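Appendix B. Raw example, untouched.
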Amino acid sequence: MIRLAPPAALAALASTGLAQSASFTPYGAGCGLSGPPPLIQAVTLPQLGSAFTVRYVALPAGQTPVSIDLPALVMGLQQASTPVPVLSSLQPANCNFLTSSEIAVIMPWNGTSYPSQYTVQIPNDQNLLGVAFHQQWVELYSRCQPTCTPMMIRVTNAATAVVGL
């Protein structure tokens, strides 16, 4: 004999299948001068009520007496493929901005370095479930003798983050 579950139990099971999982999906390619291209990575996932952290790997970020590598995290609502402007002959080839730029967070100098990661608190608001946004790290290299002159822009790949449970 086959027993069917009560309708309320079926509805509860169906609704759990609809729950949005948090995700972080990289796309595109970064560009640098040598070695593997720089990357964006998720330290945690964008979950409701939790801290969401991303970091960059292999992207220069520091200061010397003659140069500055200034990182920023760019966040947007749309993917893009916009060539990075050529600032000088040092500009690496095939560099693209891979997201729109509704928000840009310039990393603060802490006296010895720039942070290599950024954390944002995702509010515990059910209306955010399924919201997608895109992120990419961008680094501006400037040579500073005697004044600072922007010389190139390096970028990581990008990623789509989806807010979930």
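End of appendix B.
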